[in-house]
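Write out the 3D structure for:
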Amino acid sequence: MKKLMYPFLLVLISAVLAACGADDESKSADKKEEAKTAETDQQDQQKQMEEMQKKMDKQKLDEEKTVAIVNDQEILGREYNSVLTSSQMMYQQMGQDPTTKDAAEKIKEQTLDSLVGQTLLLQEADKKGYKASDEEVKKQLEETKGQFKDDKEFETAMKQAGLNPDSLEKEIANNIKYTKYINGEIKTGEVTDAEIQKFYDEYASQGGAEGQEPPKLEEVKPQIQQQLEQQKQQDMLVKHVEELKKSAKIDIKV
């Protein structure tokens, strides 16, 4: 929001300076010129964003198109587009252009792989009887809405993510079921003190090389342990999906 408001704040400042009298006319003119430049920059930035969005939208597929079939379960274009949008946003957050030829190919491959893996895991969750109750979905939906200042901002975020209210509730239900399955079925070994110490030493040496004083191990040990646990679970999850793929029937259509 600060970037959006900035040009208008400059306009307001210029107007105030202009009202201060003849002695301040030159300063007011300078401020007006700054405001005009800032506003032009804002318009250019907005235009670039719109052009980028058009390029990203071209990577999307027809919502009803069958993207893949996993064990007789169809994955449709709308599901592909939702994951694709998330991947594109991640690339942008890392300062990369998701519309280059190489990036587009990588994103497509990552999106398909993610969809297949997610579908296999959810199929296993169904087999094991993991479910998401209406109360759990409602609670998480409210928590999600609470991250936005109003309904309009929430609806805009949904649109940007390629979601609507129904598909969002479905995603939330799947996420709850997925999380229950992972926590119940993907067991990780304990993180040892030696592993924590090794991680800390690497972290501290990197900070020292950048001229920063690292915190004491006792201060960051809980965070390091949590990160290592998550990494172990992620590594096991990848292996688990690869095992599921061996016995699955997967037909990619795009």
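Confidence is low (pLDDT under 50) at residues 1-25.
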